[in-house]
């Protein structure tokens, strides 16, 4: 029997909290019970993984949440093909830790190893190698989805039917993802040769991205408070697999044991931090060999780092602008942020590759910019401005991180929204699977 | 000889975490329980995380025939046997008041079943003359509390059994470690009101394996429960009977 407990679940940005009835199944048979229970008792349900999504995509206020973190077993691995079959709650970090010694790594991983594989699929996550490897969906061979009807379907990439396309990056609204077959990639060692160099403005960044179109991992850290001729200055970080491994260091992660007071983060302290961060890279650049985990998950070294934003929480804004309009839009976005004086630590800029396989996949060719803002008065106005700039240039915001987008902007940003809606209407006419994000954006309302 | 762990009650949250601990160091595992699908998932996971070998055996601890079948298959030649037992059920006490069958089943799965299984394994340990036995009890067995004395009494019985077993196997060089978990974040405690200082199964499993390795007798996990229970054990009966917790 499954026990439902009243819980307050939080998003990673901690702006949103959801009161819900939560179950945390540990066995596959319990997972089935959560679905039957929900169907029998009415109301909506939604899967909740590690709670690493910034906005409200994984929250279901007033409904039921199925926490997947205990469904965390790896079920099969083929060392010839690299195909891993795993339960939905396995984390990227666990996969890396288990398979790196065997010469394999997740082909795509988000910026935290604590995210679950199921959550990764539902948001079609990407990483620092998107321009080469695409997003997670490109590497999922098949997945098993428990539909709201209780039926289980195996969906494959080869077939790429409508349900598959509605599930990859499908915001968890097509059902409970139970098992995933992910093709891991071979790596020559456990380390990467990492190169960092200073970049003095946006233009230099864009040139650098073009130069590094064939480098495995490329990411830019931007000082979002820099203005004028320094607009877009920052650090370019690249990583290339190396044959020489390194001793894995057993660093115990540190904790952020308390909420930092809101006052601690203001434009002056963030400006100082950003300047320091930029200067830690000498003007000649630096090169070092880094373990995959350290390179892929820099913030995982501090558990609960989201607490540095204090109790009020923070928003993350991430948008993608197609290459054609890229430079103009990035300039406008960065100017808008710099003018607002809203401190954003370490904005992340990246050039992206091929588009995702899902109707609602975020990744597509273009530049993506991600910014953090403390949840202070005035932040909503700024976010609205950034959303408009994004929309004006044919871009889109990343729903895995969003919590403020107005519903009206969704169709233009996600042109396959109607196809996605059609699948939801077919498999779940009563809206048994739902989320705060879905209700906020009116995802289930069809315009036709 | 290869380290072999028989995990009795392999689907429990603490057992699953313990399986990972011993898998990481390359042990051979026999998973024993009632949910075949669940055990095969845990076995596959353990194999990928480093277990030298795994097998699963179906066994219902409350069923005598099932126990006998298991005992004939328990041992693996050329391995050093160790046992981890985490079996039990904790139904709502009020529900057991009105349902004698539920009460009987709780005692069978928490006390009589585990005792019969361990007792059946004694000959293996006596001939092996080494090994470790870990028995997961509960702080609930330390005092008879108004709200939980039925389950508590079964766990108390299990604790006394473990104590006697320790004495029986001492000459054979086998260590019997009784674990008394406080509040651990398991499927058993999920959604229970009034929990505090809840520990993760992973951190408990790490502590448990260390305790087993050094042959500790009784270990509270997390450690501070020793002090909490020290206080509770010293509440006079005159006061205890008036408490409702």
Please explain how this structure is put together.
The complex is a heterodimer of chains A (448) and B (245). Chain A has 3 domains: 5-67, Uridine Diphospho-n-acetylenolpyruvylglucosamine Reductase, domain 2, CATH 3.30.43; 74-187, Uridine Diphospho-n-acetylenolpyruvylglucosamine Reductase, domain 3, CATH 3.30.465; 191-247 and 254-410, 3-Layer(aba) Sandwich (Vanillyl-alcohol Oxidase, Chain A, domain 3). Chain A has helices spanning 28-41, 92-99, 117-122, 130-133, 162-167, 202-211, 267-279, 292-296, 323-340, 379-392, 410-413, 417-427, 436-441, and strands at residues 5-10, 17-23, 45-48, 64-67, 74-78, 83-87, 104-105, 140-146, 152-156, 176-183, 185-186, 191-199, 217-222, 234-241, 254-255, 286-291, 302-303, 314-321, 347-352, 366-374, 396-397. In chain A, the strands form 5 sheets. Chain A has an 8-stranded antiparallel sheet, sandwiched between helices. In chain A, strands 5-6-10-8-9 form a 5-stranded antiparallel sheet. Chain A is globular. With 448 residues, chain A is an alpha+beta fold. In chain A, a hairpin with a 4-residue loop joins strand 5 (74-78) and strand 6 (83-87). Chain B starts with a strand and ends in a 5-residue tail after the last helix. In chain B, helix 1 packs across helix 7 (201-213), helix 3 (64-73) packs parallel to helix 5 (100-128) and helix 5 (100-128) runs parallel beside helix 6 (149-169). Chain B has helices at residues 13-24, 36-48, 64-73, 93-97, 100-128, 149-169, 201-213, 225-233, 237-240, and strands at residues 2-8, 28-33, 53-58, 79-85, 132-136, 175-181, 218-221. Chain B is 47% helix and 17% strand. The model of chain B has no long low-confidence stretch (mean pLDDT 95). Chain B has a 7-stranded parallel sheet with strand order 3-2-1-4-5-6-7, sandwiched between helices. With 245 residues, chain B is α/β, with parallel strands linked by helices. Chain B has a single domain, classed as Rossmann fold. In chain B, strand 2, helix 2 and strand 3 (53-58) form a beta-alpha-beta unit. The interface between A and B is medium-sized, with 20 and 15 residues.
